[in-house]
Design brief:
The protein is 36% helix and 16% strand. By secondary structure, the protein is an alpha/beta fold. The strands form 4 sheets. It has a 6-stranded parallel sheet with strand order 5-6-4-1-7-8, sandwiched between helices. A 6-stranded parallel sheet has the order 11-10-9-15-16-17, sandwiched between helices. The protein has a 3-stranded antiparallel sheet with strand order 13-12-14. The chain starts with 17 loop residues before the first strand and ends with a helix. The chain binds adenosine-5'-diphosphate and magnesium ion. Adenosine-5'-diphosphate binds next to helix 9, strand 14 and helix 13. The site of adenosine-5'-diphosphate has 21 residues, from helix 9, strand 14 and helix 13.
Length: 395
Amino acid sequence: MTEAVNAALEDAEVSGRRVFLRVDFNVPMRDGDITDDTRIRAALPTVQELLRRGARLVLASHLGRPKGEADPALSLEPVAAHLAKLLERGEVHFTDSCVGDGAKHVVHALRDGQVALLENLRFHEGETANDERFAKELQLLADVYVNDAFGAAHRAHASVDALPRLFRERYMGHLMHKEVAALSQLRHRPDKPYVAIVGGAKVSDKLGVLEALVDRVDSLLVGGAMANTFLAASGTEMGKSLVESDRLATARNLLTRAKERGVRLLLPVDLRVGGHTEAPSAKVVDVNDVPPDHMALDIGPRTVETYDELIRAGASIFWNGPMGLFENEAFAQGTMEVARRVAAARGFSVVGGGDSVAAVNRAGLFDSFSHVSTGGGASLEFMEGRTLPGIEALA
Ligand code: ADP
Ligand code: MG
């Protein structure tokens, strides 16, 4: 690994130099339209500052999972167009490939304060393979490396791992700094009481973070389909609900561990149920009255109030995972209410997870949280205490 110059981006010499900026522009798209540009906006502070300082900016990102070959449906071209609108200045040059003569040509034609976006890094299999040769081709495009792609920091892929190690000058962007600062505070020095709200689809997806949280928090409020597994593990009849029957023992272990540590692990006391996931309306039932032919698809109003008491009292609040099947309006209330309660709380509040952040955006509450993480998997791995390759490679 090339030894890094030990400096902050603020002190870097970027004027007139080509700066490779790894961003996370992996945005949700439908028919070529960007449906949520949160991640693009989140990178703007670093992009704008570098342009203002006269850098020749080379942006790179992945989009989706194209499996190492070009897929027009996963082109970053619409992102280039959208970025140009957000920047309100000049154009965003676009390269047909992230490496090779075409890319070199576009990048070498950049003048100070101009920006190019490379085509999807994952159109080349070298990216996910963390291939050194692919990294060397990318390296030819710039003099300085900056990583602002927190959402990709948990993957040892070429653009975030092999590539930065080839640069002597490698820096963290502002977004990455902000993410690390907010999550580190929760991870290492949370103000107490520390309340975590965890939901979403599966216990198995989030086992690592559940285990890490049980050792640190004062209360753990569980919702979503994940709560079904905990409820079933405690002997509650869950009808047709989504339950991970191979995780009942895991859930029981977590319940025991919480008890031993004096952590209040709360499960729903009432639920919104429906006959199937597309049910047009919900019925609220006591947790012990889930009808055999129904599924629990959201937490109920009494649960929201119980959880809210702890949320209000929390000095630190971490939320990951929706409280129900919020994509269906009939089962969105629990998630939306929890979003509102956390947003209104006085504690230091952090939300992470792709679907949870989508819910926060839908509720229009993005600015009411202390921090909204752009990283789903990355934020969870950070909270688990794992070292993220993309951060380690900058050291
Ligand atoms: P995040 O992306 O925020 O980490 P997850 O991906 O873990 O969240 O979980 C989100 C998914 O879980 C959503 O698609 C949501 O519909 C689903 N979900 C939550 N609660 C339930 C439930 N009770 N039954 C079925 N699906 C649920
Ligand atoms: Mg998700």
